[in-house]
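Teaching assistant here, posting this on the class forum so everyone can see the example we discussed in section. The complex has two components, and the goal was to see what a joint structure prediction looks like when all of them are supplied at once.
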Amino acid sequence: EAQVTQNPRYLITVTGKKLTVTCSQNMNHEYMSWYRQDPGLGLRQIYYSMNVEVTDKGDVPEGYKVSRKEKRNFPLILESPSPNQTSLYFCASSPGDSGNTIYFGEGSWLTVV
Amino acid sequence: AQSVTQPDIHITVSEGASLELRCNYSYGATPYLFWYVQSPGQGLQLLLKYFSGDTLVQGIKGFEAEFKRSQSSFNLRKPSVHWSDAAEYFCAVGAHYGQNFVFGPGTRLSVLP
């Protein structure tokens, strides 16, 4: 079954404690990205990756890091989380062709206290 | 810069009534347009997409959308709403999957019995 899998799905952490949200896709997609969803703002792109070792900033990259060492994985790293990063995070992947469908993971609820 | 507006934050309709959710976009090139639905606590599911050709596109769950270039709109419609359609709906526009892919703020749909 085609899937984008994120972990953890739910996390409460404290300010400043580094955390990583993993994302893995089994569709051999070239493109992956991370979004955060906040009420009234819809989804905003944090980072995206066009292929292994190729990443770029989205609209709201501050406070986040990513890496793409393997095609299937695209972890999101919060080096020093702050309360304003409390949000619902989605990982997504897509084939390389323009305009193709984006497949989303189920989301990761992150609370920073 | 590209943008997507969904003028209605929250819409309430009675079960069996017709539905239209509005979406307007601003994009410098020929857009690829999408509608996604998010049920409470769930990820995003693609309802339909428009790339080219017939401007009236059919999607899953009985939804359809019409692309009107002159109005820069891509409104979502359903002739008869079911209680299970209560969810949040997001319009999105983009050319390439990971670049310039922008979501609207979402419209929350409530369905009265």
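For the discussion questions: Chain A is about 0% helix and 50% strand. The first strand of chain A starts at residue 4 and ends at 7. Think about how each of these relates to the inputs above.
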